[in-house]
Design a protein that fits this description.
Chain lengths: 191, 191
DNA sequence: ACAGAAATCAACACGGCGTTTATTAACAGA
DNA sequence: TCTGTTAATAAACGCCGTGTTGATTTCTGT
């Protein structure tokens, strides 16, 4: 979404995103109509169509923003960090702190009634993160390696989703630490 | 869904499920209208409403059937199997074989454009399976244990989804074996 | 202050929704 | 094979959200 310097545009888009998030806490996206959303925003319906094609178009622009932020906060992990350096912990911690800041929207996008498409995208980002880390200590590749990376990434996102769904009873650092421990020592060591 | 002995009813419902699955291969559920589905089935629109409230009602009845089958095939693992007995392998293998038989529908429900609600339910079933297994060898419980069980379950479902999305290039037994190995030895032993 | 653009309002045709009616066709059980 | 029951059909209904339009007003950046 190309950004603008017109205050009215920023205001309208922010309003729409806020109210969409609010409505999504009580009902599924598919039940939210453009008319209803505009009433909630006290915005003319024609104004909505000036910015977005439909509710899903708006939703995807929100998703893209979250995803971009997630990617950005993980980026240092990819570019920086010498071979074997400890970046899993800080990387996960940064990611979970970022998600915690946007918890309302993330819960709605990743948990019950969320968007599979989006969950898959986040999971793919996480898998590339995992792949990058393991490449630093072992350059072997193979058909089955992809499944293992997927296993780890999906496990992390699964934990993330449970944590979000329970309204984050632990601080993000603790969850990040748990996942780092799992990645380093495996689940068996913890059970 | 209460079953009937009237051939016409069985025929209609089967037709609707078939065509729904067919349509879902090309477009998202939210884009499928009752009108369109009925045209595809060559069925009167009023007939649809005699059986289901809307497209999602139909979808959920399909999901319930799949879930019931999945649960049923996993059930022996819960009830049977003495303490410490090797049931992880056979259990996973049975589950993956069952899912492979219903691959078309499962891919559409679990992968891109799928239903988060349904994925979550399957993941919960898998978590209870995992919890049951680990209880046999270790009865400790704790706040963080739930996260670990979730990690394992989500990892398994993640692998399942990747496998389905790639049109199952490996036999179900091989995937089940891989996951059993991960559960027993951890990912680190394999990397 | 001014030109440009965004937001508003009202109205439009379109199409899917969910329901109803009368009618026809298929069914299960005797 | 007959019979009462019930599912499926066809046609029509009002309703509502959609996406677009044109004219008008309000706000914005410079």
């Amino acid at each position: 979404m190309e950004q603008t310097d017109d205050r009215r545009v920023r205001k309208t888009r922010r309003l729409l995103r806020e109210q969409l998030a609010r409505l999504m806490e009580h009902k599924s996206v598919r039940e939210i109509t453009v008319t209803e959303l505009c009433r909630a925003c006290d915005i003319n319906r024609g104004t909505f169509y000036r910015h977005y094609a439909d509710v899903y178009d708006l939703l995807h622009s929100v998703e893209e923003e979250i995803r971009r932020g997630f990617q950005q906060v993980m980026d240092p992990v990819f570019s920086g960090g010498k071979l074997g350096e400890q970046v899993i912990g800080p990387g996960l911690q940064a990611a979970f702190c970022y998600l915690a800041e946007n918890a309302d929207m993330c819960r709605v996008l990743l948990c019950r009634g969320g968007d599979m498409e989006f969950v898959q995208q986040v999971e793919n980002l996480m898998r590339e993160f995992v792949r990058e880390q393991y490449r630093k200590v072992n350059r072997r590749e193979g058909e089955m390696y992809d499944y293992i990376f997927t296993y780890i990434a999906a496990g992390c996102i699964g934990v993330l989703r449970q944590w979000l769904e329970q309204d984050m009873p632990q601080p993000p650092q603790q969850i990040a630490a748990l996942l780092e421990q799992i990645m380093r020592e495996g689940v068996l060591a913890l059970l």
